[in-house]
Design a protein that fits this description.
This protein is an all-alpha fold. The chain has two domains: about 40 residues; about 250 residues, no CATH class. The chain contains 13 helices and no strands. The longest helix is centred in the last third of the chain and has 70 residues. The protein is globular.
Amino acid sequence: MASEVEDDAAAVLTNGGAGAAEVRRRRDQAKEILSKQAVKIATKAEEHERFIFKVTHLLGVLGFGTFCYLLGARPQDVPYVYCLFYVIFVPLRWIYYRYKKWHYYLLDFCYYANTFLLVMILFYPKDEKLFMVCFSFAEGPLAWALIVWRCSLVFSSFDKLVSVLIHLLPGIVIFTIRWWNPQTFAAMHPEGRAARVTWPYVEDKSYLWTWLFAVPLAAYTLWQLMYFLIVNVLRRQRLLKDPEVMTSYRELSKKAQKANNIWWRLSGLLGDRNRPLMYILLQALFTVATMALTVPIFLSFQMHVVFQILKVCASTWNGGSFILEVMPRQVVQKEKKKLEMKPMEEANSSQNAEESQGDLSANGQHSSEHS
């Protein structure tokens, strides 16, 4: 009897192990299929790069004009336009980045913050505390990253356009909810009362600093821990094996080293081995400083308006600099690369032609011998 029970238990364990292995196999197979499809789509996009640039520029300009109209005519709809943008363009960016081996960028804080805002709009639109956390994210680290990291508003570049909107749109959405949304405006100007009230309701300064600084900073710390666990622990070997896989730290350190700027020198204060740690510390200081600045912006409509204008002007200025200074160099480099590749392609095609000709003559000789 005991042996039968043991046999049954062993059979269950064996079947369970086989089931788990099958699940893992199917999951890996699905990931492989998705990766292959992402590569196919991105390859096709690169083949028709010029046409896509023209279409992107056209749609970008038309979309920008439509968004400006909505901003003035129906500000209450702006959050839902943002949600539509997020659910369409972030998956498309994953496809493109997966092909380019940049997909670890989607673990960055900006996507974490955007996800918070998406959840708030769709599921908790009247949660004042969550709104204040999203305000701190949008007008703190995301907004200043747009300025500090020189994001460029270039309508002909899908990648750059999405990068700007990922950092710019959350602040505009927060601005419309805070000051222009009819429901919010009605709550801030109740009938029968001369005194203006606030939305969200702020009890005192400590409440303000709690939900605009302390809680968002705790949420940022949680993201930093998760990011470190995924990139520096769980996927460490994968990143070490393939230096072409990019992360934010790899890109920023590469640019800083090339320019030998202040960020490269600061990150090396504790030695080269501790540069990732210094990068985390510098990013934390940046986050603390920018979140603290959201408190006066939250209290002042005029300051908030000026800040929106500053962000748009900075990204537009950077876009003009990119079009005039960077794009011509990129075009020259691409043409140069094509010219360098042309002799190799011609040599390969002639070699293939010779091989096929040799195969044909060999087949003809073989058939004549049989005849």
